[in-house]
Amino acid sequence: YTPSDFPLAHLQQEELDRLIGRGEGVEDVYAMTAIQQGLLFHALYEPDSGLYFNQMSCRMEGVDAPAFRRAWEQVIERHAILRTGFLWEGLQEPVQVVRRRVELPWREEDWQGLDSSGQQRRWESYLQADRRKKFDFRQAPLMRLALMRTGREAYYFAWSNHHIVMDGWCRQVIIGEVFRLYEAERRGERLALEGAGAYRDYIAWLQRQDEPGAEGFWRRELQGFSEPTRLWMDRLREGTAVPGQQNCKQEILLSGEVSGKLTRMARQQQVTVNTVVQGAWAVA
Fold first, then answer.
1. Nearest alpha-carbon partner for 174 in 56, 262, 61
2. Which end of the chain is more exposed for a tag (fewer CB within 10 A), N or C?
3. Dist CA 54 CA 171 (whole Å)
4. Do residues 120 and 82 make contact, with C-beta atoms less than 8 angstroms apart?
5. Among 196, 28, 25, 29, which residue's Cα sits nearest to residue 101?
6. Measured distance CA(103)–CA(140) in Å, rounded
7. Strand order in the sheet with 84-87
8. Which pTM value belongs to this model?
9. Which residues contact 16 (CB under 8 A, 6 or more apart)?
10. How far apart are CA 115 and CA 27, in angstroms?
11. Which residues are CB-neighbours of 90 under 8 A, at least 6 positions away?
12. Alpha-carbon distance 30 to 62, whole Å?
């Protein structure tokens, strides 16, 4: 490995050697995005806050547990970000290190000996303990999986991860691939998915952007603003709201047709529906 092999801004050869030695077991090393650096900073600054910890849990029926586990193993093999850890100590800037292979963080237990209320209490206890458990950012993968058997083919399932390795959009992609691979495993087939994009290419693209030009654009757009614009919710908290103004909840139900159009537009623009809604709110 040499620094020229990777899109790194300041990493020197001696630092690289100290990080990975001869590179055994290392697939790649590259810089972090600005948002990843921000997430890492907040996680290290407030380690007990639970910020940016994501946990998805559900009940599943008719699960072939071994096939389900193999599907997750294949997904980790496909995506470098799921084999990525982060290093920062003693470096001018933090980096992410992709391992060639990582062990699937899989926890599986049989709770069939408990009644339904006992299973529920134990599951809630597990989820709470999982939320309290910290991730070691230096060790990949920054995710955990649990499958607890509650019946002949019934399970509780939980998938936890840190936001530094994926957002909501990526979670949809990952879970979609998992179930496609799972169905192929159950049929005894080997599914050939399309090649996954390389995250290092995105890092390299970011570093090719014209940052001074972008800064100039936003300075022109925000010309005339001399201080932060306070939201009316902030004024409410400080007791300076306009008389009669108060917090409220408003619920709007959209038709299936409108919801479908929003979803298609979000996919075309490669953003989440939540981003579309926030954009509309900002314009309004």
1. 56
2. C
3. 10
4. no
5. 25
6. 9
7. 26-31, 95-99, 84-87
8. 0.77
9. 1, 2, 3, 29
10. 46
11. 15, 18
12. 41
At 15 the pLDDT is 67
Using the structure block, give the residue that is written with the tokens 């009644």.
115
Convert the chain into a string of H (helix), E (strand) and C (coil).
CCHHHCCCCCCCHHHHHHHHCCCCCEEEEEECCHHHHHHHHHHHHCCCCCCCEEEEEEEEECCCHHHHHHHHHHHHHHCHHHHEEEECCCCCCCEEEEECCCCCCEEEEECCCCCHHHHHHHHHHHHHHHHHCCCCCCCCCCEEEEEEECCCCEEEEEEEEECCCCCHHHHHHHHHHHHHHHHHHHCCCCCCCCCCCCHHHHHHHHHCCCHHHHHHHHHHHCCCCCCCCCCHHHHHHCCCCCCCCCCCCCCCCCCHHHHHHHHHHHHHHCCCHHHHHHHHHHHC
Which of the residues in the chain have pLDDT under 70?
1-23, 230-248, 284
Nearest to 65, CA basis, from 155, 150, 127: 155
CA–CA distance, 98 with 29 (Å, rounded to integer)? 6
pLDDT by residue (tens digit) across 26-77? 898 888 999 999 999 999 999 888 889 999 999 999 999 999 999 999 999 9
Burial class (CB in 10 A: 0-12, 13-18, 19+), 64: middle
- As given in the structure block, the two tokens for residue 82 are 């799921």
Label the pairing between strands 143-149 and 106-110. Answer: parallel
Contact (Cβ atoms closer than 8 angstroms) between residue 87 and residue 29: no
Res 124: pLDDT: 97
Structure tokens given for 134: 């910290």
Query: How are beta strands 26-31 and 95-99 bridged, if at all?
Result: antiparallel
